[in-house]
User: Which sequence fits this backbone?
């Protein structure tokens, strides 16, 4: 297949792939152009589906050789039976969701394990920009405040707290910057975090 | 080839007839002792016969899916925008087969064909046929053409139901099922619309219990009404509003029952046109086939997921948001059943103002995803 020609491999894909057992079944929510799923298919031999609502992304997923279901995540995951996937992934999407709690609960229903990655609003450079009186704009948060799909930013600390509140068991937290793990002061030094949790 | 044929057309095509003498046992318990299937082909079958695509027609369709029958033909095949050189279903790559289903009125054996037992048109004696029967007859045509496995079986609406049935009836003989604007079974509302259409035909004084051929008449009025009703349900309110609104043919109301609104004129025209070339008995049969379609009942004790457990194909399912007769929720039922069985499926939920008829329109997103899915198939079989 001419699959990986246009794959848009982000640094954290490797960190996600490391946590996924070979041959498992994966549901990738807000899968975008399908790059992550295509990468997992190649590196971890996974099967499964992407879900996205954007027309161009459906076309891109078809090019990238992944199976994609066009659907709005806000309307839930009723198409998927409970515990029907080994992993449900929500990568770089949660900040754009209206009903954050709703989607996290649905993920934990459908998946045996859940993986969520998000830009850490507590990252020092975001804080710096706020101190200077501006809304943060960066590689991971590339939008201006008035023209952004992002409505629910959080920090590493915040997300941890929400997981606890929802009764999830956090199995792994990977604070990252430029794809590398941040060894200390995660909430300050990580521009991105990956959480893996179970219900 | 004539100058009037564009480069992306399959050009001039000649329908072919396959005659079968092996009796076909039908779902209804009846048997067709022998029958003809009329079909057309476009493109070339490759050496290992792996690039064949079957196009299944919908309610009023036939074998002529692309190209023209002669140079001055004003009418191109009903899916000519989708099928041809360089089009989403690319005839430079694929060997495409279109056929007219049993019960049809475009050459395949149907109610208007001569019944060899009586020397008269079948009329009321033509048995009820189902989607399963069609698929069985299509499998025999596949044998005849030397196609052991279709790269894809493709269809919209009732055609999508055939693609779905193929995946369950002959799991080994279909690589991909492309199911567009379809449903796993009709809703009560859908059956109700079909029955109103049928009643229009059945109660036409010229119907003669289906044997109108011998009386030298056709139940034009009933067929016209049936088509007008159908046509309304295949469009969306918005689409119709956009095209016609409350436009009047003349400036003032006439306070009569003549044609006054443009939509009335359009529907009457469509109804008349249809009644002029389509057979009323075929319309009855095709709507009944729609009503009876319920693979969950046949293969899964009422459960679609169980029924699809036998399928081995990959699927592409597409629905249009303004299609209220075969709404996206119905396609999602199919997708869910496929996901339950861990089958490969891609689902496209396409925005369109054209209602159910959108599957015949050249919508950019629809064509983009179709093209890409067909590309994917080609990469597998090339």
Assistant:
């Amino acid at each position: 297949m001419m699959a990986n020609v246009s794959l848009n491999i982000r640094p954290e894909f490797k960190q996600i792939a490391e946590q996924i057992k070979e041959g498992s079944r994966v549901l990738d929510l807000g899968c975008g152009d399908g790059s992550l799923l295509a990468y997992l298919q190649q590196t971890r031999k996974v099967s499964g589906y992407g879900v996205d609502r954007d027309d161009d992304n459906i076309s891109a997923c078809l090019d990238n050789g992944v199976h994609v279901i066009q659907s709005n995540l806000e309307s839930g995951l009723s198409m998927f039976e409970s515990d029907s996937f080994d992993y449900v992934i929500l990568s770089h999407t949660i900040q754009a969701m209206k009903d954050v709690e709703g989607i996290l609960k649905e993920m934990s229903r459908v998946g045996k394990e859940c993986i969520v990655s998000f830009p850490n609003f507590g990252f020092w450079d975001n804080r710096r920009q706020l101190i200077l009186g501006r809304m943060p704009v960066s590689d991971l948060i590339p939008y201006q405040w008035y023209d952004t799909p992002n409505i629910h930013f959080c920090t590493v600390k915040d997300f941890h707290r929400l997981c606890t509140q929802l009764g999830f068991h956090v199995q792994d937290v990977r604070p990252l910057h430029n794809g590398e793990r941040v060894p200390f002061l995660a909430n300050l030094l990580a521009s991105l975090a990956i959480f893996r949790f179970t219900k | 080839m004539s100058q009037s044929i564009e480069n992306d057309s399959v050009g001039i095509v000649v329908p072919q007839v396959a005659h079968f003498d092996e009796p076909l046992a039908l779902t209804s318990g009846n048997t067709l002792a022998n029958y003809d299937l009329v079909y057309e082909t476009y493109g070339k079958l490759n050496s290992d016969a792996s690039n064949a695509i079957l196009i299944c027609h919908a309610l009023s369709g036939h074998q002529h899916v692309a190209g023209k029958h002669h140079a001055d033909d004003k009418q191109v095949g009903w899916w000519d925008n989708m099928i041809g050189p360089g089009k989403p279903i690319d005839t430079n790559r694929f060997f495409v087969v279109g056929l007219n289903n049993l019960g049809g009125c475009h050459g395949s054996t149907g109610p208007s064909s001569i019944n060899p037992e009586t020397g008269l048109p079948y009329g009321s004696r033509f048995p009820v046929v189902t989607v399963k029967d069609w698929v069985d007859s299509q499998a025999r045509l596949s044998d005849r053409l030397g196609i052991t496995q279709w790269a894809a079986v493709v269809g919209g609406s009732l055609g999508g139901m055939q693609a779905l049935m193929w995946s369950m009836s002959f799991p080994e003989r279909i690589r991909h099922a492309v199911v567009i604007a379809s449903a796993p079974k009709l809703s009560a509302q859908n059956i109700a619309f079909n029955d109103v259409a049928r009643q229009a035909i059945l109660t036409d004084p010229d119907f003669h219990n289906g044997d109108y051929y011998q009386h030298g008449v056709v139940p034009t009025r009933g067929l016209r009404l049936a088509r007008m009703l159908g046509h309304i349900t295949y469009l969306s309110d918005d689409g119709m509003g956009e095209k016609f609104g409350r436009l009047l043919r003349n400036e003032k109301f006439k306070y009569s029952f003549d044609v006054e609104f443009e939509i009335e004129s359009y529907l009457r025209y469509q109804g008349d046109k249809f009644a002029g070339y389509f057979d009323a008995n075929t319309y009855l049969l095709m709507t009944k086939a729609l009503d009876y379609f319920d693979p969950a009942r046949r293969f899964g004790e009422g459960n679609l997921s169980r029924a699809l457990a036998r399928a081995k194909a990959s699927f592409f399912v597409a629905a249009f948001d303004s299609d209220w007769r075969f709404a996206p929720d119905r396609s999602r039922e199919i997708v869910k059943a496929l996901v339950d069985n861990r089958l490969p499926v891609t689902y496209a939920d396409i925005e369109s103002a054209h209602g159910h008829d959108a599957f015949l329109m050249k919508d950019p997103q629809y064509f983009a995803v179709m093209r890409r899915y067909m590309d994917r198939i080609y990469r597998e079989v090339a």
